[in-house]
Amino acid sequence: MKVAVLDINGKDTGRKAELSKDVFAIEPNDHAVYLDVKQYLANQRQGTHKAKERGDISGSTRKIKKQKGTGTARAGSIKSGVFRGGGRMFGPRPRNYGFKLNKNVKRLARKSALSIKANDKSIVVMEDFNFEAPKTKNFLNVLKALEVENKKSLIVLGGTNNNVYLSSRNFKGSEVVTASELSTYKIMNANKVILIESALEGIESNLSK
């Protein structure tokens, strides 16, 4: 599977990049994608929610009224959740929402996500570039050249590049990651996935195992 390589100005360089069929052209597994995205979102939850239950409330422990003869329900504590100011019944408690997912399933999910994007022609391959210093305007010019300034985009670098990363931080719709940080959620969340040439080898070696 060959894709044209673009330069920093969005022009065709005349070269072609070979995308592995084992990574970018498999039969997508929708359920694997769903599970990996679900795990990613679950891991973003802090799980620090806590409501006061009757054991956490300060109040008298005396019996409110006699057990029988009142014609109403039994009541043994003012801290009960049925009374105003009492504890909450079955309130939220701190918990970890994360769950385990098999490595092979996660790998299949990422390959499926890339294959979906490739099938939709939403993958762009771009030659390596760098900025002399972090500058938002330079990054905006790159997005304009690729016609993605008003779309959600994901730029995948071959390795750490602080100048490019820092230049991108003011754009909410665009994210810069390295090949090792690539996730199914980030792939599916982007309208365009821009792969830098140096990232292709890392992506294919990580996902072809």
Automatic annotation (TrEMBL):
Function: One of the primary rRNA binding proteins, this protein initially binds near the 5'-end of the 23S rRNA. It is important during the early stages of 50S assembly. It makes multiple contacts with different domains of the 23S rRNA in the assembled 50S subunit and ribosome.
Protein species of origin: Winogradskyella sediminis
Region entry Disordered, spans: 45-77
Keyword annotations of the record: Ribonucleoprotein, Ribosomal protein, RNA-binding, rRNA-binding
Family under the similarity heading: Belongs to the universal ribosomal protein uL4 family.
Subunit architecture: Part of the 50S ribosomal subunit.
Chain's gene name: rplD
One term of GO molecular function: structural constituent of ribosome
UniProt-recorded name of the protein: Large ribosomal subunit protein uL4
GO biological processes: translation
GO cellular component: ribonucleoprotein complex; ribosome
HAMAP family: Ribosomal_uL4_B
Alphabetical list of InterPro entries matching this protein: Ribosomal_uL4, Ribosomal_uL4-like, Ribosomal_uL4_dom_sf
Keyword Hydrolase among record annotations: no
